[in-house]
Amino acid sequence: MVTMADVARAAGVSVSTVSHVINSTRVVRGQTREAVLQAIERTGYTHNTIARSLVTASTRTIGLTIPVVTNPYFTDVVHAIETETSTANYTLLLVDSRDDPDHELQAVRALYGRRVDGMIIAPTSSAPGSALAYLAANAVPTVLVDRLASADFDQVGPDNEEPTVALVQHFAELGHRRIGMVAGLPGLTTTQERLRGYRLGLARCELPYDAGLVGQGASQAEPARHAVHDLLAQPNPPSALVVANNLMTIGALRALREAGKRVPDDVGLASFDDVEWADLVAPRLTTMAPPRLELGRTAVQLLMRRLADPTRSPRTVRLAPTFVHRESCGCTPTRPESPEPPAAQNRACGSGPATALRYATPPADPGGRRQR
Hints:
The protein has helices spanning 4-11, 15-23, 30-43, 49-56, 74-87, 101-113, 131-137, 161-173, 189-204, 221-232, 246-258, 292-308, and strands spanning 61-66, 91-96, 118-121, 142-145, 154-158, 179-183, 214-216, 240-243, 268-272, 286-289, 316-319, 322-324, 352-353. By secondary structure, it is an alpha/beta fold. The protein folds into three domains: 4-47, lambda repressor-like DNA-binding domains (434 Repressor (Amino-terminal Domain), Orthogonal Bundle), CATH 1.10.260; 59-158 and 293-319, Response regulator (Rossmann fold); 161-290 and 321-368, 3-Layer(aba) Sandwich (Rossmann fold), CATH 3.40.50. The longest helix has 17 residues, at 292-308.
């Protein structure tokens, strides 16, 4: 078996220099580093990371458990996490949780069995017996991403409540009085926070909360399609819908098309999450866009700090989504090239940060537009 000493002899350097090149423990520059890399290739040396982990108690690996297949929203998050971990000279081990608590717990146990140095997880649940309870019991350095389920861990996620408030207020300012919501999977913190934002938005607009206007979309397209059909079948259906994630927006659009409803003429539509195709459909979708790449980068940075200082207090980071104004809400957006925010009297049709949209007092007849 080829050893590190064999590589050192072939490159004409010390064993410690070879170790520094392989493990990135010290900068080795220029011709010396190149000579080591060429010697590794010539000799066929394979670095034994498992053996090294027994000595250093570090495998230089990070476990990631996330519902990446069931929700393409996480694709950019995973890309940013992989890029950031690679830059820090760590290897990423990814397992799809399928948004199922039992499968998630199995995934976390498997990653822990592989001696990962730390984990990043978009948790499905924080209940006793969940993956989070397992991670806490085993003192695994962990960062929660997107879903802020426990302040006992470092965590980073989007602000959900106020941006949802802003979407409700936007529809109210356009004259809607029957504003419905398609909610996500019960038990997820994002679902709970966006529902709170929906109710708070109604309250700020002095609109009554009606449980019959909330459809259960389970964070997936097909349940959302059925939920929207149920909402439309009511004697007094909603004239506008706030949809709580990207997959449910697909289901909502299908249901509206099947029911012969035009967006936004018959039903206004706005979605939490932005997707690549949002400006390709007609009308283009008005959305709240969480900063997915920044979420992934911040998650890794928090984990690196946790690994460097395990005793530091847990930190929670909230990142503001961006209000991406298009046409599905029912009004004409400002031109994308305009660098200035809209005037206050035109704020219902403006663009900019989610928190820029604020409701003051509900107008009796906003701008002469019809009540809905």
